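Cont'd.
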Amino acid sequence: MSAFAAYTIIGLSLGGIFSLAALGIVLIYRTTGVLNLAHGTMGMFSTFVAWQVFYGWQHPGWPGWLKTAVAVGAGLAFAALLGLFLEFAVFRWVRTRPPVVKAVITIGVLLALQSTASLIWKNNQYHLPIYIAPQDATFVVADVPIGANYVVIVLASLGLAFGLAAFLRYTSFGRAMRAVSDSPVAASLWAVPVGKVGAVSWMLGSLIAAIAGILITPFINFDTTSLTLLILDALAAALIGGMVSLPLTVLGGFVLGLLETYPTIWIQSLGFPRLVALLVIIAVLIVRNPRGLRVAA
Amino acid sequence: MTSRLMVRICVALIAFTVLARIPAGFDVGFQFDAALAVILGFGLLSLVLLTGYVGQVSLCQATFAGVGAYAAGMTASTFHVDYTVAIAVGVLAAFTLGVVVGLPALRLYGITLAIVTLGIALVFDRYVFQDRIFSWFTGGSGGWRVDSATVFGLQMDSSKHLMAAYIVLLALFCVVALLMVNLHSSGAGRRFRAIRDSELAAATMGVNLTRYKLLAFGLSAGIAGLGGSFYPLVAGSVSPQPFWVFTSLQLAAIAVLMGVRYVPAAFLGGAFMAFVPDVLTRFGHGTLFGRYSYDISYDWFQIVVGVLLIVQLILLPDGVWGDLRMRVMHARSAMQAVTRKRVRVA
């Protein structure tokens, strides 16, 4: 029973990561029509920036929480700049192209960023993670100890999902973003700043990817490829939400996390979770034919 | 036999005779690259068929090549049959996988197909090619060596017979390329292009979508598998690394970069993809002006591919070969307009 509970906790925190990554994909897809296959890579790069600040620079005498805050802040700042750069340098110029062409462009982004990262940080596996909460802090719920870092992930994903939903619903800029996602042409006729909306969505999406990347570091031996390949699980969660719905995307992320974790009780395999993700994707696509994709594809 | 076909056959023959002689003076490393270029060329050619002709996105062409390589290598080293049989098995295995992948593709198109094929590439890379469960077939993440391959009873040693393998590969490539060019204007090719332009319109005109989409996936996978099944012969071993997910992504990127609608662009892309990284790793380090030391590794190649792909898609949507072709045709018609007194109006 306690093994089952432990796997549930791992699955839920993994699902939190998936839903975080998927939120960024859905946000960018809805407002700019770009299916961002480089989402995992962008998160990976920002995570490595944070890691570099955390472990690379010596600042003796600083308390631990300040070091963590500076590192995370640096990673997030880099992520926002990266998103802005990509919007202005690349995706602004291809706004009217078909979705497939935009998706192929993100493959170019993926390859370039991926190789830049492996050029800088080599293809090592890094075993020194960034802990947001103290490593040994635990909560005990019904005799099951839960690491604080797991709780942080679940809280962060739920908080960001609800925060993003509230932002889209109740602020005027959020309304502008939803207008652009419904129809860029109509929105621009109503003087909605379409370019600004695109820039902000890329920035936000990149930020969320970075948060997901930083939060996952305690749970994997992270290297430049494994975070990039997280894209498949994120896409699966996003497809469960139909590339439209934020609550369904988050739910999809958690369900996928559990689905990928429970088989590891019996099957010790690194690759098996990918198979689960692929099966989920195929099942969702064949059963549902997502609305948002149908409109744009 | 129309004159157009004759011209194409002549072009293919000339290309073969010229290209077959080029790597003869190279050292072993570059001869391996030459053979690898044709193998990758097959992968790109399969994308010309699937994406350029039929308009289906695929991010798992290296997986098809990998399945061909594993099936051929397995057949050759386990049953000690002639390698031609192994190649047939490899192509058949890839064709079968292609049809299986085509099944979900019947209901998908555009970016959803990209997602599913990316997933397939990832699952084969991380699970099928590497997992313990399949190690009886794949040899795990280390792969296995293929030695003692025989072709028509002749013993093939991978390092000594690279040229022979290259020439056989090149001949096959020319034949397949010729068939592909011919396919473009055949009945099946017209149906393929109708599917590319609009599936709905094609179905309305009586094109059997199920049959032709599955056929396209099968043929494309078979072409990729034909190239891949030579890999054990050329490299002397099979391992997951050459067929991992990033190779699939690179194939897609380079196919689009070179011009995904054109057959010659496939060979150009294969040569680019095989030679440039090797040249970079061999000669890419030293010192500039005696002061600045530089070290250009394989990673630089992938950065360049990514950046070039982005620039190309923004500026030259039809790829490098498509752009060159258009320029040549414009120049030719301009020449004709100048030299001929009367411009014939079509």
